[in-house]
Amino acid sequence: MAQNITLLGASYSDVPAVQLPKTGGGTATFTDVTDTTAAAADVASGKYFYTSGGTRTQGTASGGSLKMGVTTWNNSSTSTVSHQFTGLSGTPVAAVLRCTAQLTRSSNNAYYYIAVIIWDGTNCRGNYHLRSNGSFNNQANYASNTGYSVTTANKAITFSSSATSRSSAPGSFYNGAYELTYFYL
């Protein structure tokens, strides 16, 4: 909060902070914090702030407000065993990836395609479909962390299948559309 101050006989109005030279070099900044309204429960645990009385205080709040984002991926080329979404609104802490394409192409070959991957931030479960002899047969695999993995980075998430090709379980990404619903703080 800006204050009117007098320093060595000179008056200054609306001063937000004062920097004073330190004997060992550098400066020390003094700021009026009397208008602070935050409480320890408002600030993330491990972070520090100053109360309106000028006391340095550590925050106690855990987590934050969970937000949701949705994005789509349209792969018009070949199938792949991993895919990365980048440029998200935040780094995901949980996500659901589902195929939105119609898995109806006929073929005499056996191909496994991912239908859905659910990641709760720790464990990953997946479901794939087997396309064989012109039809799809549901071959579910919901074993925790078996066959599917998820890694996250700054505003990005990568889904991977341990399949070595589209003709091996637990499945690859179909060359169609996928929708990602993700949750971030």
Report on the structure:
The chain has 185 residues and is mainly beta. The chain folds into 2 domains: 3-58, no CATH class; 67-184. Helix content is 0%, strand content 50%. The chain has strands at residues 3-7, 10-15, 17-21, 27-31, 48-50, 56-58, 67-74, 82-85, 92-99, 111-119, 124-132, 135-141, 148-153, 156-161, 177-184. A 6-stranded antiparallel beta sheet has the order 7-15-9-10-11-12, with no helix packed on it. Strands 8-14-13 form a 3-stranded antiparallel beta sheet, with no helix packed on it. A two-stranded antiparallel ribbon has the order 1-2.
Largest sheet: 6 strands, antiparallel
Count of the domains: 2
Number of helices: 0
Average pLDDT number? 81
Uncertain runs are: none
Overall outline = rod-shaped
Helix content: under 10%
For the secondary structure, the number of strands is 15
Strands of the widest sheet, in order across it, are 7-15-9-10-11-12
Strand content: over 45%
- The secondary-structure class comes to mainly beta
CA gyration radius, whole angstroms: 27 Å
- Termini, distance in Å? 30 Å
Order of helices and strands: EEEEEEEEEEEEEEE
